[in-house]
Write the structure tokens for this entry.
Amino acid sequence: MTATEMKERLVGRALKRREDPKLITGHGNYLDDIKLPGMLHIALVRSPYAHAKIVSIDASKALAMPGVVAVFTGKDMLDINPMPAAWLASGVKNNPVPPRALAVDKVAMVGDPVAMVVAENRYIARDAADAVEVEYEPLPAVVDARKAVEPGAPQIHEAAPNNIVFEWECGNKAAADAAVASAEVVVKEEIINQRLIPTPMETRGSIARYDATTGEWTVWMTSQAPHVHRLLLTAFVFGVPETKLRCIAPNVGGGFGQKIFCYNDMAFTMWAARKLGRPVKFVEDRSENYKYSTHGRDHITEAELAGTRDGKITGLRVKTWANIGAYFSTVAAGIPTTLYGRIVTGVYKIPAAHVHVTGVYTNTAMVDAYRGAGRPEASYLIERMVDRFAAEIGMDPAEVRRKNFIQPEDFPYDNGLGLLPYDSGNYEPALNKALEIAGYAEFRKQQAELRKQGRYLGIGISSYVEICGIAPSAWMGSQGWGAGLWESANVRVHLTGKVVVTTGSLPHGQGLETTFAQIVADELGVPYEDVEVQWGDTQGTPFGYGTYGSRSLAVGGVAIKRSVDKIKEKARKLAAHLLEANEADIVFENGRAYVKGSPDKGKTIGELAAAAAVAYNLPPGMEPFLDETSYYDPPNCTFPFGTHVSIVEVDPETGHVKLLRYIAVDDCGNQINPLIVEGQIHGGIAQGLAQALYEGAVYSEDGQLLTGTLMDYAVPTAAMVPHIETDHTVTPSPVNPLGVKGAGEAGTIASAQCVMNAIIDALAPFGVKHLQMPATPERIWHAIHGK
Amino acid sequence: MTTITVTINGVRYTSEVEPRLLLVHYLREHLNLTGTHIGCDTSQCGACVVHINGVSVKSCTTLAVQCDGAEITTIEGLAHDGQLHPLQEGFWEKHGLQCGFCTPGMIMAAADLLKRNPNPTDEEIRHGLEGNLCRCTGYENIVRAVRYAAEKMAAAQAAD
């Protein structure tokens, strides 16, 4: 290749994923696939009561069973601390009560573990767990967050009077009150964002091995953030140096937030491995995952939106009870505060807004981040209220949106809710594109015609903005987050010219190996095949906060780019030395450094890597090897946006909804791999529309999880999800040099209200103004028939 | 303990097993064929689908002893001589997987579907895969992957 021949750029190309060959042939390496010599298996004894005192635990029958090695209870593990609370609600008093490895004296939810059996295999462990006799003294339970703060409600934790975790607010209360009081029109609604169960197809688990001679553990974990777990488990739970623990996340079978958190099994497997001197494994079954691993959403909200008769929104007042569950999960308080309240005005210029959130303990599974985390709740709220307002004043909902959109010239835009300014946006073209694909004007005519025939079609619009690449660290510190949120990456060009990238990000389906390799191959001008991306093992990768919040490209990817930039800089210096030219005259492009004006006089990156590695002839003071690390802390978050449109038909006889079309126009800034971006959007939409139509975790009043298995909790099948039509606009982010924003959560953030708005539009002739999710046939039938 | 003899991916195994041992645990724990996954405990998710005597079956609700004398194919046995099965190729080409956990079961179920219905409509693909859950893809690219495989297999057959 001569200097003038351009290497074909890979960024922007829909390359198929390099991750796939092993996964499609059954050679992935997920947690439960790992077997260690001498490994024991753990089964838990879990509480059948939502709230109870533990009176006694008798393990004698279990211990007598052949193959049972030990039975431990919470009291055996009082030498380790509870799980850490890492994100508190900012600026207010918090009452964090995180869970212990096993419950002590009292249980606070169905599935709370009270004892663990360690046995030679999982069948024996399970048999023995059934033989452990536990006597409980049941206590009254509460599952509803609004009821849990009422006087006389059962008290779950002494440290949290009235079950309150925190009370937090943002915005301008006086202004919002005045806007509502003086408005021409006020619409008011109770909006319930029901509890969901994330349901990664792989459940969670941990395997721990302890080396008594060095005092070091290795823990394999289903984790989105192994570096963070290493830090939390050592510094906070065990009180040992972090160098004593190596965490490894193998292939992770989906996370959706549920695998961000530091869980009890990480601690009790470590504890048992040390105690017993043998490796131990714990893997949840699905019903355990549903009972104990974190859930998402679960907000009860009273919302009032104020506006003028001609469609201008003048104020928004929001009061939310956020159910936190039985204990404080790792980042539980940040989700319904910073990631919800501060973006509740969405894509609109609303001059006066105020949000009050009460975080509440109940006798239910812990609630923490689930795909979108706070932003779907915010987006659902504002987009439902805007439609409600449009219906009230008799204006087209698309028109109300246009009338109130933040305009391109308003960016960077401060929404007045304590968020950093929105980076860039151009909302109307995305809306227009989605409406054009849907044939909006034509549809409205068709809808009117069909109504005359007794057919009820509806169209729903959802214009959203969200927060990705959450940072910078200093701002997150002010938000109650107990750490930084930068990312790091190391890039090395080996003697043979092969490039190894190590990252603290943790792909678990996002295709980051492919995306990152595309960036590095372009930036360094090396063949894509020569770039290897390594992740997942705290020994051998630089510290990273992990993969969640659509941050791995906008933060982790940029750290990689910066390491590559440093490599190029060093390569230029070395080339100048070897070519006996001035450094200022060296150009680096297409994987080659050459003297400006003499493109034939140059060295390839491979030649320079070899020269740097053998180090026979380096400029004075230059260290050998092309090996650079960067720590990237962005100056701001990124704010992806877009508009989704759906069309439904509701059968008034049965209440059944048929989703006829789903159109997504998203703007995630520059796209590195459009195939992967589209896949992320598809998957996100499926989860959001499932919230609208199918899913909901339901507890009985006494705290039994009624949707405790996949038989009862309606994760959609292929036949329950429609064909999804995708398109996009591109508004690069000015925040980072890649111009990227993030795409992992957008689909989920946009879709629930998109479908609900369509259903409620279809039901407008019946006077239906709002409907709670999921919009089951029964609920719709009752809404139509006023019962 | 009961003695069973099964042929898995062309290899014959004779094993002593507990009568209650599930086929999926036999494959995973006894034979280290960990490509077959477990995603639930109620036979909903389909991550464990294998073929027994050519028919797709959820191995989490099959006892190993029921398979005495049977021919079993798992995801590890689907590619031949380094040549991917058209479905494996389709899932790769069309981005039909993200985390990959449901993929082995999804591919095995789709293989059986295409055997019964070599030229399915998108609607038939969606209904044909109702016993398998995927949480990552929204199924759009799984449908494309199955259609890719159907077309490829039809073309190969036409060429024969």
User: Anything to note?
Assistant: The mean pLDDT of chain B is 97. Chain B has two domains: 2-77, 86-159.
